[in-house]
Design goal:
The structure is a homodimer. The first copy, chain A, is mainly alpha-helical. Chain A has seven helices and three strands; from the N terminus they run αααββαβααα. The interface between A and B is large, with 69 and 67 residues. Strand 3 of chain A pairs antiparallel with strand 3 of chain B, so a sheet runs across the interface. Chain A binds a DNA duplex through helix 2 and helix 3.
DNA sequence: CGACAATATATCGTTTTGATGTATCTGTTT
DNA sequence: AAACAGATACATCAAAACGATATATTGTCG
């Protein structure tokens, strides 16, 4: 136990490419990654200091004379091994928490219009997210010659494909509700 | 704060239809709901006793002479109001945690075959879940005359539609990886 | 130069997760 | 009727995640 902390792998994955501060890590997670994983200061900073103690990362003070010192983190060989072991492992948990579907499931406690409204809110959100994902896709398409970018690209197309499926479902669900309820 | 506990709403939603024990609630959540929300004894039992204190649910001892007493929970008027207020509120958090996509995103730290293998594992899992969802759908289609079942049905079709999109994406992603990496 | 946003680190209370512990009840087999 | 497996039922705990907040510095723009 105490080895199940998923945020560790997110951090190691990011540090594999470049040295980062805790704040940088949060920003990276808030970008394209946030569509399939989230992080907060409340778990990033504790994870960094734990991983430093167990030798997965090392601190590197930035040498910016005059200005305040930042704590840059750097991945160690041990950290790289941990990252690769995780990538090689079969185990992968895909956990979903759709409050929208929860509300729909219990929709019988209210009227049809409430359910329709909630589907509408969801649709709104999906459309907005989809627009962001599409700009990510366009940007990435221009730089697919770099291997890493292919991996990023695939996670973006995953988002686009599923979000498009959501929108299609929304149309059908509204129709079904209007006919059946 | 201390009002953001989502498990409360899941429990209230279930109790709206019938009185249940904590154990029953866990079983219900492990069924069709588990595709979009999860629960554990570790949050169900504390939630039940907190909600009893704040008057959202009431204990009802089962009168089964001889046998062990079960603690059945019953929703109160206050609990029903809380449930309806939540259904009427716009706010709905849809949180995804795809370890599969996380591994894919950081795939550059390993070779193409590892990424392909991980997509394969995901595909396997999705196929299995899809089969379960399809039997749910068939069962529900026979009883769509009851209003509640329409709501259950829609959450199931959501699952089927998105899982089918996943499978389509898997095929495309494997092709892209083989061409580009 | 004063106001305000962004950077940067850190902590705190609440909630969730996942595993485990304990005991009882039920159905089946011999 | 005894033995046993497996389901039922309630409960707790450590670890992890979440979300908000505190604090201070640096950058920028009118």
């Amino acid at each position: 136990m105490a080895k199940d902390r998923k945020i560790d792998l997110v951090i190691l994955g990011l540090l594999f490419h470049e040295d980062l501060t805790g704040y940088d890590i949060k920003k990276r997670i808030d970008g394209a990654i946030s569509f399939f994983w989230k992080g907060s200061f409340g778990n990033i900073y504790p994870a960094l200091s734990d991983m430093e103690k167990s030798g997965l990362v090392k601190k590197r003070r930035s040498e910016t004379e005059g200005r305040r010192e930042k704590i840059l983190y750097h991945i160690t060989d041990k950290g790289t091994d941990t990252l690769k072991d995780w990538l090689n492992a079969k185990q992968a948990t895909n956990d979903l928490k759709y409050e929208t579907l929860l509300k729909l499931y219990f929709g019988g406690a209210q009227d049809k219009d409430t359910a329709l409204r909630n589907i509408g809110y969801f649709e709104e959100q999906v459309r907005a997210d989809l627009a962001v994902l599409r700009t990510y896709k366009e940007t990435l398409e221009k730089v697919l010659d770099r291997k890493d970018h292919v991996y990023y690209y695939l996670t973006v197309t995953f988002g686009i494909d599923t979000y498009e499926a959501y929108l299609k479902w929304c149309r059908g669900a509204k129709k079904t509700l209007n006919i059946m309820c």
